Structures are given as structure tokens and as C-alpha cells.
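Quick board copy: two proteins, each given as sequence then C-alpha cells.
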Amino acid sequence: MRAFLLLLLSLGSAWLQAAEHTWIAPAWTARNTPVVTVDSILLRDTLSRLYITLKQPPHTTLTLHDDWEIQDSLGNFTVRIKDVDGVDFNRIFQFDDDSTVAVEMDFPPLPASCSEFDLIGNKPSGEIRVIGLSLNRQQSPVALSPQPATRPSPPLPVITFEPDTAWLQGRFIGYHRRLNLPAGKIVLTNLLTRQQTTIEVPVADDGTFAVQLPLCHPVQQKLILGDRYIPFYIEPDDTLSLQIPLDELLAPYRNIREIEQNCTHLIYQGRNAQANYELRQIRLQEAETDDNWMQALRTLSPSLYYRSEENKLKVKLERLNRDWQAQKLSSKAYLLSILNNYYLFISHLIVYNTIKNINTDSEYSKYRKIDIPFATIYPLKEPLSVVSECYLPFITLLESQANSATPLDWTSVEFIEALKTRNVDLLPEEKEALRLALDGNTAITPQTQAVIQQLNNRCEKEQISMREEKLRQWSEESYRNRFGSPDDFTRQLLDARRVVRLWQSLHRALTIREQSEFTITIIDPPLRFAVKRITSRPDR
């Protein structure tokens, strides 16, 4: 009897072995996050079990939902998860110091014909996809290319504002169309027209992309993919190539600066590759310095806040100086980083003073210059400021404050005199209507309104000229009180943007006389020519 039982047991063991198979380190084709790694797959006639390691930064949280499923790569079948061990479905859990959590997922048995499948789940909190899990191959070590040798980047070009194009191309390493990732995008803002253009970056099945960028000066921009981004610097008539490992780009992060930090194998190629590497290194070095800005904005007194911002700028500039003098940094990246830091610093002061309702305009003038070895830089006078990633936000801040200021008021005497200097002779009833409208405190009668409307129709261009002259005077005084010299390139750019906005509102080309008059304060030749080129067009 015992011999018979032993025979049955041995036969049963052999049957179990034949009906069970385990794949260690199964190969996979692509994934949209490194959070999930399938360590092994157990196949039985009764179930399919996936042994999985979840990995996130320490003390971050995750929720595994109960919507996980296995799909055949060809779409022939789908099986839903039956059970999970190691965590509870639909309940948040935290990663410990070792950053890992081991889980087991049980699914119904897979068809015998299945040799590859996709693992998909967690749609409520951000879908996770592992594509092409193999049942006959093991994962080979992924060898990412090292950073190639680069040549020194060319000097910064002269700012001409001439329309041109550049090409951004490259490849997302580890891409697959079944990851269902969105197309990339790049948002470009024309500094003169304010027109914002979102350029879609289609990604081919092999992960490659190529897109043409309309530029009129160099830019520091970002290639955006979903909620992730890759910064880059590019110039007109330039081609820049990127090699971006998706596993690094899509890694979890606690602070937004970690997105770039995670991309340790990012590769730039092209004539400005070296400048891109240097700018990246500077951003990573300076990221922690700016981490506590929001807290300082809320909690520090004015004197402590100013001192804190000044100290941060000093530390950054000293580091840049050391690296530049040690020849670890090119003059190109050095100057661009100085401008980036300067405009970030000034913007932080303006934001604080605006929130706290502090009027310290004259205080900004003491920050006009930056002394560096062998030179003094005046950022506000520098046309290369347009390349700074912080310049447009700075300009927008200044314009926002100007727009919220008290509107320009006219007295009837000023208005009549301004028309007179433009050879407009007013009738007695028109002068009286202006006195009632501009000086009086009583309601304007329909008859007075009709006279004013006729006057507006008769001398529309003259009134536009009057308004622009008064705006220029007010802008010059405001800028001088805040920053000192009204001849700065930055002041000219503010005037240029105002003239272009006027052209946009008129829906017609400016006359040669209007262009000459309205651009009188714009003395930078390329900027002046660009404004005239834009406003010569008949419409927007």
C-alpha cells in the first residue's frame, strides 16, 4: 500500500512540474514608468502570478487600484487581476527608506499560445504600462550611451530679431506606441508680438522626432512630454539633437527640479551641445538654492527678504566666477547664467514688493550692474537679455504693474494744446465739450457726447499720437525712477512691445509717419527695424 502511495505521489509531483513554469527576469519592450519591475512570472494551469518590485523615492506614497489587466500584444485576449499580495487594493501605502515594496499579482491562466503580453493598470491615479513582457526571453542589461565628446560652442550671436528657423530632433530611448504617451510640445512666445505658439512634436514609432522652430533670437526652452520636460538652448539656423532615456524622464519625483536631475544619461548633440551641458550643470547646482523661495516670500520681513535674495545671488555669481576662471565653464554659458540669475533676482524683489504693497522703486537702481572679473555687466542695457529664460517673466511683471497703475488723465487745457501742436483747430463747441468731459463733474449730455464723437472721427490719428506721447513720457519717468537710465535696451523693448500692441489693436498698418514718431525712443537698430517690419503689415 505504501509503495502504491509513493508511486501516486511521485506521479503527482511530476504532473505539477509539467504544469508549472517560472520565468526569471522576463524581457520587456517598453514601460511608461520605472516604478514597476516584473521580477518573475509563474505560470500554472490555474493562475498566472507576477512577482513585482515597486520602487519610488523614500517616504513617497502610491495606491494600487484593482483595475490591473493583462492584454495580449495582438489584442486577442484580456484577463483582469484576481488578487494581490503585499499591499491592499485601493489603499494608499508609503515607501520606506529602501524605496521598494514587493507585491504579487494573480491573474487567470494565460493561453498556451501566449508568448508576450502587456501589463496595464492604475488608471485612476496615472496609468502604468509595461509593454511586451516576454515568456521566452530574459531581460538583457540596458547599456546607455555615455556622454560623447563635445567641441566648444560658438560665441553668442548678435541679436538681430530677423525671422529664422532652427531644428530640434532626437529620440526617446525606450519608446513604444502602445505606451500611449502624448505627443511632445514646445511653447514659444514672440517677445515683440506676445504671440504664443504651441508647436506639437510628433513621436514616430521608433521614438524619433524632428520639429522646426520659428526663432528670431536664441532661446532657452523646454521640450514638454506630459508633465515632464527637458530644457534646451538653441539658436536660429541651428540643429540640436537630444537622446532622452524615457525610464529616467518618467521616473517619480518629489520636487519638480528632480525631473532634470533624474535624466543622468541625457545626451545633447550639435554645435551648441557643450553650452547645453554647461547650462544643465548650472541649473542642477542652483536648484536647491531656490527651493525655499516661496516660504521666504511668505514669512520674511522686507530687510531679511532682500538680504536673503542678495546672498543667494552672491553665492551663485561666486560659483560661476570660480568655474569660469577654472575653465570649467565657457563664456557663453557664463554670461547666459549671469543674466538668468539677475532677472530671477530682480523678479523676486518685484513680486515681494507687489505682494507686500511696498513702494521701493528707487531701490532697484542699485542693482543695475554686476561686477565680474575683468568686466562690468549692465544686464538691463544688454540686448542678449532676450536669451535669458527669466527675461520674459520679468518684462511681463513690469507691464502688469504698469497696467494696474492709475490711468493717464487729461485736462481740457492739455488736450486742446496737444491737438493744437498737431495742427488741429477746434471749434468753440468742441472746446466746450472737452471742458465738460474732462474738467466737469456733471453727467455728459447726449449733445456733448455727439460733439466728442464727431471730434474723435475727425482727428483719430492725432489722438492716437497724443496718447502714445503721453504713454512714452509716463513710461520713461516710471522706468527712470525704478532703474535709472531710460535709455536701457529693456526700456526700449517695453516701448517696442507697446507700439506692436497698438498696431494689433488698430488692425491696420502704421503709416511711415506713425512709425517714425512711435519708435523715437527705440534706438537699438535691430529692434527698431523689427518693430517697423512688424507694424508695416496690414493686419495681425
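And the next:
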Amino acid sequence: MRSAALEKLRSEALNLSEAERAELAHELVASLDGTIDSDAEEAWDAEIVRRLAEIDSGTAVLVDREEFRRRMRARISGS
């Protein structure tokens, strides 16, 4: 059963812009994760920077959405 406070909060949250809802959702999910692993955060930050550098330099092999979906479907089906 939902409390009145939760229902009011839900109603107000749904009236936010998409960007505001995304930010709120991110913060709420992050609050469920417990303590932040700073080593993992640093590693992901470095990985993001590395991948962006590959894209900027033209060395990354990029695929469009349809190709990605085709590959994932093939993996899932075991083909």
C-alpha cells in the first residue's frame, strides 16, 4: 500500500521534465547502491576517456543501432 506522502512525491516527480526525472532517477538508484567504490569509479572514468579518445582519433570501430541489435540477437539465440 502506498502512503499519501509517497503518492504525492510520485505525482510531483512525474510532472518534472524528462531531464529532471532522469537526474532524480539516477540519484535514487545511486542511493540504493551503498558505498561508492572509488577504484571502480576511477577505472570507469579512465575507460570512458579511453573510448572517447578512440572515437575522436578514428580508431574505434563503431556500429549503428541496427547492426548492434542484429549482433545481440545472434548472440542471444546462440547463432
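Board note added afterward: The two ends are 45 Å apart (CA to CA).
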